[in-house]
Structure formats: C-alpha cells, structure tokens
C-alpha cells in the first residue's frame, strides 16, 4: 500500500503511542497546555469491561484478548523448557487496568544507580518529587508522600490470620515490621498499599485520562494499532497505523512518543527500521538506523512460588471452594466493597536480603492466603498459603524481537530466566529464607507443611532447578530500549531516541536496570519526567 492510499488524519503537535500507565500520564500532562494538540492512540478498546473495576477481576482480564495482548514467551531453558503466559494490557489504562494494583516505587538506590550510570536528573532526589506530584495518598502528605494528585493510594480492605502470623514469623528471623515500603529503603514486612478507591481498581485511565478527556486539544483513539513510524531523513515525522481495520496515517509537528511498553516500543522501532541492522535486513525491513540495543537488555522478576499446607485456620482455598463461601464473598463486596473480591493478587509483602552482604533488600515476597498449581487453575482443596519470592535485581538478560515484518504477528520474547549463575544462587537462598520463616514460632500453631518445592529438595543445584520448575513471571518486563550514554543505549537521559530527531520513548522499556519492586508506578513516574523534559526542550 502506498502512503497516498492511506487516510491522512492531519497534524498534531504530539502523537503518543499507547494509552497504558505511562501514556495516560503523558497525555494528561502535555494536554494541560492548551497550545499543545495531543493525539493518544490505544491498540485496545475502552476500559468499560466489568471485571477491570472489581479488584479480583485480574483473574478475568489477564489472558483475555479483550484486555490483554496474550503474549507468550519462547520455551525457557531455565524453567525446564516451559513457555509462560506474558500478560500486557491492551485496553485504556494498559497494565494498570489488569495488574495487581500494588503501589511500590522501588528503592532510592535504583534511581541513584541510573544517575551514576550517566543519566543526569534521574537520581532519587530528583524522582521523589515526581512520585509525590501524582500521588493521592490516603494517609495524607508528608516528606515522602503527596496528596491531591491523580494516583490514588489506599490501604488493603481485609486481613488474614495466616498473613498476620507470617508477618510475626518474619520479624522473629530479623525482617522488621513496616507500614510503608515507599520511603527509599523498602526493607521490612507488612501489608501492601494498593491503587484502589473504596474497594474499586484505580487505573491510569481513571486517574489521568478521564479528567483530561474533555480537553479540546486532546484526541483519544482506541482500536488504533501502530504499524511503523514515518521519517524525513533522520527525523520522525509521523506514524502509520490501523484504525478499526482501516489504514491511516498521522503527522507530528513536534514529537512522536512511544509509550507502548517493554514489548511494544522495541517492536515499533524494529518495524520502522530502527534496530540491529542485520536482523532487520533478514526480515526484509529497510534499515533507517542501526541501533543494536533495540530489543535487548530485557529484565523481569521471576517469582518462585513456595506453597505451604496449613491447619487450624481459614484460607481463601476453603472459602472459594465452598458455594456458601463464594456467595458470602460476593455479598460482602457488593454491599460493603470489602472482603476477598477487593484482594490484590498479593496482600502481604516483605523485602529482605538473601545474604547479609547486600546493602539493601534484594528479595521481594508476595504472600497470599491461597494456593494453586499455576495461575488460572482452581485453588487447592486443602488450606494453604503461598510465599512467592523474587530476585529484585536479576543479572540474567533476555530479548524481545520481531519474528516477521507483519505488525500483527506477536514477537519472540526470551527472558532467559536463571541463565546467570548468581541468579541461581539467589533463587536457592530465597527458598532457604522462606523455609526459615515457615519454621519460626509464630507460624507453628498452623503446622505449616512444605508442598512446593518440597522438603526433600536440598542443595544449591537442586533448589535452583526447583525454582525454575515452580517459578513464573510476575509481569515486570523492562529495559528493552534502555537509557544510557553508550553505543548499546537506545535513548539518552532526556529519553530521545539516539540518532533520530522528533522521537522519544517514555515507558518501562527505558529502564537501564529494573527497579527493586513492582514496576507500574515507576513506569508512570518515567512519563512524569518525560513531560517535564518535553516542555523544557520545547521552551529551549
């Protein structure tokens, strides 16, 4: 198809690709200036699906083509040859419409490391005010938190006896209690705060996009899937995309900004001829710029799902497997907006060190009063809890690349979990630490019995192998268009694609290293930073 055969939608100052967590923030911030005309494109549909808004609804939005891209990884050697589902939001709000709703920023050292790697302006002291600017903290404002912003943060609306006991047990072995994981050092154990408002999911679409929806200078298009960027020489000038099945194009007088995430953004670059030159030639894609870092440096958190049978207490397994229990949970939610239907996938968290030599925690626990064989399967018939534990700073690196020049074909996703020797050691130590917590006095009234990986598994090699057999993604892919100053970096510290004018990336793909916690709110603060950089550069 020639360019002339496409419908031309005209010119906007800014074209934002992806209305996910970052894209919604950026659209809000750029459209605040009435002089800016902003077009926001989303490949998925509107966020009017019932299960988006009920917190437990992530069970029905993930792996559902209505709301999820439904990606899968390639078979992973470190996981015993298994291929994993790899959920990514395909709906207004993106991953914030289908994720676990946990409000976590990571550690101050994460951002200070980015700055030390040569990315000026990305240290904790520069980033903390941006977190506070967008935050609406239910506890009120203080030195670390903001109130009155668009991103609502509230307390969990339920507790569980077995989780309270786990918290006590963690304290017994030296993991202190905490009520705030977001002050810069997240060490400790406590209930997570969540992005909800009175028991209903609070997404980036609700917080940032809806308040801006009536601005005359903001246009939002759904069912708009990017195909490739348009260029004049080495300047990005627009985008070809498919709008509800029809081929269209649009031009950007100022910038095109990719907010398509760690999977989508490198794919759009490669489809447009930006990436490893030989790889592009092999696919028959004309090379615009040889940028070898595109699609590389993939990092993700692999959670090791340790399961313990328990006695003398009620877990979600019993309630969900009982007809009366399910009816009761439904009534509790629809009458009071409380109870298990308000649950994030994990309720209790802990940040700890697999080895005392670490300066700050390198492990995160997501503890749940339930168990199942794998995500999407029925809960077990026996009462149990799951203590999922992940290495916060994995050294394994993977990649995401096109399989073909067809924009509709899903990419090849290769996380390479547990490919680095140190990651295997941390996995073994993480299981041992979980066992220490389970053996602590506070849990003994519930007679915890290790179900997975099983008490017979011992030794570094066997434990690392077991971690791969029971491990699964916790949905935190980052780094595939990393920020930096070297030849393998894709964007500079101002998020400009190196070697291409008029093109920026503002999403989790730019992270040089993964943050030490869940990645949704850090992705949004990247967009906050991007909005400031874009305004500064336009003034200059």
UniProtKB/TrEMBL annotation:
Cofactor: FAD
EC number, UniProt record: 1.1.99.1
The protein's name: Choline dehydrogenase
One Pfam family matching this protein: GMC_oxred_C
Family as reported in the entry's similarity comment: Belongs to the GMC oxidoreductase family.
Keywords: FAD, Flavoprotein, Oxidoreductase
GO molecular function: choline dehydrogenase activity; flavin adenine dinucleotide binding
Domain Glucose-methanol-choline oxidoreductase N-terminal: 261-275
Residue sites binding FAD per the record: 91
InterPro entries: FAD/NAD-bd_sf, GMC_OxRdtase, GMC_OxRdtase_N, GMC_OxRtase_C
PROSITE patterns assigned: GMC_OXRED_2 (PS00624), PROKAR_LIPOPROTEIN (PS51257)
Enzyme class: oxidoreductase
């Amino acid at each position: 198809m020639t360019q002339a055969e496409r419908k031309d939608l005209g010119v906007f100052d800014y074209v934002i690709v992806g209305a996910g967590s970052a894209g919604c923030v950026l659209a809000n911030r750029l459209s605040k200036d009435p002089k800016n005309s902003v077009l926001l494109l989303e490949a998925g549909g509107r966020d009017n699906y019932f299960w988006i808004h009920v917190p437990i609804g992530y069970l029905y939005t993930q792996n559902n083509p209505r709301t999820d891209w439904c990606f899968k990884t390639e078979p992973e050697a470190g996981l015993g040859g298994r291929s994993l589902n790899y959920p990514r939001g395909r709906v207004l709000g993106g991953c914030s419409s289908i994720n676990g709703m946990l409000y976590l920023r990571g550690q101050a050292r994460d951002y200070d490391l980015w700055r030390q790697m040569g990315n000026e302006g990305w240290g904790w002291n520069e980033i903390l005010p941006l977190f506070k600017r967008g935050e609406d903290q239910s506890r009120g404002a203080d030195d670390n938190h903001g109130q009155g912003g668009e991103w609502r943060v509230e307390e969990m609306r339920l507790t569980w006896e077995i989780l309270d006991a786990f918290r006590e047990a963690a304290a017994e072995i030296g993991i202190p209690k905490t009520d705030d994981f977001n002050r810069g050092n997240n060490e400790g154990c406590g209930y997570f705060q969540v992005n909800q408002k009175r028991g209903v999911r609070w997404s980036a679409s609700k917080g940032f996009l809806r308040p801006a929806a009536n601005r005359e200078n903001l246009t939002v298009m759904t069912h708009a899937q990017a195909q490739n960027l348009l260029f004049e020489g080495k300047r990005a000038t627009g985008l070809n995309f498919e709008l509800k099945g029809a081929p269209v194009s649009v031009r950007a007088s100022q910038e095109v900004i990719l907010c398509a995430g760690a999977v989508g953004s490198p794919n759009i670059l490669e489809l447009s001829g930006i990436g490893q030159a030989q790889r592009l030639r092999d696919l028959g894609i004309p090379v615009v710029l040889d940028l070898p870092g595109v699609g590389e440096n993939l990092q993700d958190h692999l959670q090791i799902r340790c399961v313990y049978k328990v006695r003398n207490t009620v877990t979600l397994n019993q309630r969900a497997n009982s007809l009366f229990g399910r009816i009761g949970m439904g009534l509790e939610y629809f009458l009071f907006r409380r109870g298990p239907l308000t649950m994030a996938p994990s309720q209790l968290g802990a940040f700890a060190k697999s080895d005392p030599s670490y300066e700050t925690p390198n492990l995160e626990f997501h503890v749940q009063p339930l168990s199942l064989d794998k995500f999407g399967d029925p809960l077990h018939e026996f009462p149990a809890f799951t203590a999922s534990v992940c290495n916060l700073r994995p050294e394994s690196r993977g990649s995401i690349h096109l399989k073909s020049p067809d924009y509709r074909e899903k990419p090849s996703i290769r996380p390479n979990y547990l490919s680095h020797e140190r990651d295997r050691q941390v996995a073994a130590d993480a299981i041992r630490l979980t066992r220490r917590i389970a053996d602590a006095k506070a849990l003994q009234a519930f007679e915890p019995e290790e179900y997975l990986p099983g008490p017979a598994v011992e030794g570094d090699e066997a434990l690392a192998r077991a971690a791969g057999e029971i491990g699964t993604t916790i949905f935190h892919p980052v780094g595939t268009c990393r920020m930096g100053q070297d030849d393998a970096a894709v964007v500079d510290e101002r998020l400009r694609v190196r070697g291409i004018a008029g093109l920026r990336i503002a999403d989790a793909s730019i992270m040089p290293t993964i943050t030490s916690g869940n990645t949704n709110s850090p992705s949004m603060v990247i967009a906050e930073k991007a909005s400031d950089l874009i305004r500064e550069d336009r003034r200059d």
